[in-house]
Amino acid sequence: MNVDAGGLQAYTDELQARFMRLQSEALSLNEQARAVEVTEKSADGLVSATVGARGELISLDLDPRVFRRPDARGLADTIKDTIHRATLAAQDRVVEIFASIVPAEQMRAHVEGDVEALMRQLAGQMAEGDGQR
Predict the structure, then answer these.
(1) How confident is the model at residue 1 (pLDDT cuts 50, 70, 90)?
(2) pTM of the model
């Protein structure tokens, strides 16, 4: 068996350079993702919620007009829905940020905490890799 040592070394160098570039880019993208803040308003404009990249509530603003209608259940539902929409938008933004290095469906499973979907995707990638050998 004749091995092209020079070609093998070039390929190794290319992989190492790609890995270093991805590692550097990933750190930068992680900083961008951690800085994500999304604000959503309720349909009536009386509730405003700002969440971070993980959906954590950063701020909640209630227009004083919400107290004109004493509907605690309705207000709670509006707050919950507004926070939920903000969380989904923040997750979308994180997926966008990492799109250059992580497939969207894999990143989406990660940010949603869907371990089963993530494992299925990784298993599929490994199976594809085995088929190429």
Answers:
(1) low
(2) 0.74
Whether the Cβ atoms of residue 55 and residue 91 lie closer than 8 Å to each other:
yes
Rounded distance, CA 23 to CA 15, Å? 12
Side chain identity, residue 122: L
- Residue that wins the pLDDT comparison between 98 and 6: 98
Distances (CA, A) of 96 to 1, 19, 33, 44, 84: 46, 21, 9, 29, 18
Task: Give the total residue count for the chain.
Answer: 133
Residue 35 has what DSSP assignment? Answer: T
What is residue 121's three-state secondary structure? helix
Select from 34, 26, 32 the least CA-distant residue to 102: 26
Q: Could you read off the pLDDT of 107-125 as tens digits, one per residue?
A: 888 888 888 887 887 787 7
- Integer Cα distance of 54 and 33 in angstroms: 9
